[in-house]
Amino acid sequence: FASFAGIMILGPRLTKFFYGEKKPGFVAEVVITTLAATLMTLPIILYYYGTVSLISVVANLLILPTLPYAMGLVFLSGAVVGVPFLETAVGWLATKLLDFHIAVVEFFGGMKSFLIEIEPYQTWVFLIYLVIFVPLVIGLIRQKMVKLREAYKKAQEILKENGIEDFKSDAFFLIEGIYKIKRAENAKQKRSLLYFYSSTITR
Hints:
Layout: H1 2-19, H2 26-49, E1 51-53, H3 56-63, H4 67-79, H5 86-109, E2 115-117, H6 128-161, H7 171-182, H8 187-201
Antiparallel strand pairs: 1-2
Helix pairs in contact: 1-2, 2-3, 3-5, 4-5, 6-7, 7-8
């Protein structure tokens, strides 16, 4: 679940941080996805096992692109049981791909110099989530504030277009009024809403 949450929540944020509105290439996307999953599972792995490899990202980078194919082949091998030749061919491909995954894990797992080891069941490791989530939350707040300022500016422009120059109101109330006015079903409703919000914000 933590790995999935990392991919779905942290992954897009990392992508936007490094690439903005641009779409990353295949390799970069795999790296970011791997990094996001690794960061989210890091405290859990340290808590239960007390070890983590500094080059696990490299291992995941090799395994992740082939993982969907491995899962598909395993599923297919079960579906074609009893079918001559096809059963053997699919089973062979699935086995070779899984052997590749095992070989990668064993190769990088054997590099002890890249291992960080601590005593398992240390609750302080979950403080790592603060390092991950505090910048994430701050970034989200800043993003929301930028959007709010843009919406407030747009609301001011719309009000000025309707002849309202002097207005005093908090941004949320003003933006709410603008959206309701823009979504009004007919001209009469629009005029009523415009009168209500304009009389309120110019008090």
